[in-house]
Design goal:
By secondary structure, the chain is of the alpha/beta class. Helices cover 41% and strands 14% of the residues. Strands 3-2-1-4-5-6-7 form a seven-stranded parallel sheet, with helices on both faces. Helix 4 (88-102) packs parallel to helix 5.
Length: 274
């Protein structure tokens, strides 16, 4: 679910609170896909509070409008574009909007996601195509953003992958999701290598179970909470856990010598499961 801080906000967040940990993101222009709920919304809030300008994307305009109004009622530093990034023209339009409103694109957070735990033999063609479209979205969104970043001398991309792509779990069959997220990991490494000479860093984060609305149709709250014990650190992840890693990898002052990394943010699952 969205963090309590986002749900309970009665006053707009102050843009750029000028703490030492956020100054280096001030005036950066960030595009975030999957920005209507969960990790995307939490990440948008954090970048905004760090003084960045934000462009949100998602499929549902009503969700984007709601989150945008909570974070920046003035709409001076945050805007949004609803559409499917699996369509190349949508990705291009998002970048064009960022440039028209804020002049550039410094950071792309490819966060859009879909997840259903389902046995391999039960997947339908339609379901598989949904996951493949997700990969298309990461591909074309990166393509549009990198074209802009090359013109300005650099940038950073952070992709959201999954620990299940490298550490499968027999209790959570996720072959279709893991195929898509494995492709995201591969895309990350290839783009990092190709565009490092142009000062464009590309990294990914591989979460384990993170409590977001992605799980709402799959498990009850109690069932979801019970998964926490499978993580060596004893709890499920929260959106803020992923957001902190995103900000680190996006921030040139903290991670300028890091590219081509798929960083597990997984409560220790990559080391072993309880």
């Amino acid at each position: 679910m969205l963090s309590d801080s986002l749900h309970s906000t009665k006053q707009p967040f102050k843009h750029s609170q000028k703490t030492s940990s956020t100054m280096s993101l001030e005036n950066k222009v960030v595009v975030i896909t999957g920005g209507g709920t969960g990790i995307g919304a939490e990440t948008a809030q954090s970048f905004y509070k760090a003084g960045a300008k934000v462009v949100l994307n998602g499929r549902r305009k009503d969700k984007l409008s709601q989150i945008a109004a909570k974070i920046d009622p003035s709409a001076k530093h945050l805007t949004y574009f609803a559409g499917d990034i699996g369509q190349p023209q949508t990705s291009q339009q998002i970048v064009e909007l960022a440039i028209a409103r804020f002049g550039k694109v410094d950071i792309l957070v490819n966060n859009a996601g879909v997840f259903h735990a389902k046995p391999f033999l039960n997947h339908t063609e339609e379901e598989v195509n949904i996951y493949l479209n997700l990969v298309r979205g990461y591909f074309f969104m990166s393509q549009a953003a990198i074209a802009a970043m090359r013109q300005q001398g650099g940038g950073a991309i952070v992709n959201i992958g999954s620990i299940l792509a490298s550490q499968p779990s027999a209790s959570t069959p996720a072959s279709a999701s893991s195929t898509a997220k494995g492709a995201v990991h591969a895309l990350t490494l290839n783009l990092a290598t190709e565009f490092a000479p142009q000062n464009i860093r590309v990294n990914a984060i591989a979460p384990a179970v993170v409590e977001t609305p992605l799980w709402d149709s799959l498990l009850t709250a109690a069932q979801l909470a019970s998964l926490g014990s499978s993580h060596p650190l004893g709890r499920n992840g929260q959106a803020r856990d992923i957001t902190e890693a995103v900000l680190f990898l996006a921030d040139d002052s903290r991670s300028s010598w890091i590219t081509g990394v798929v960083l597990p943010v997984d409560g220790g699952v990559g080391a072993g499961r309880n």
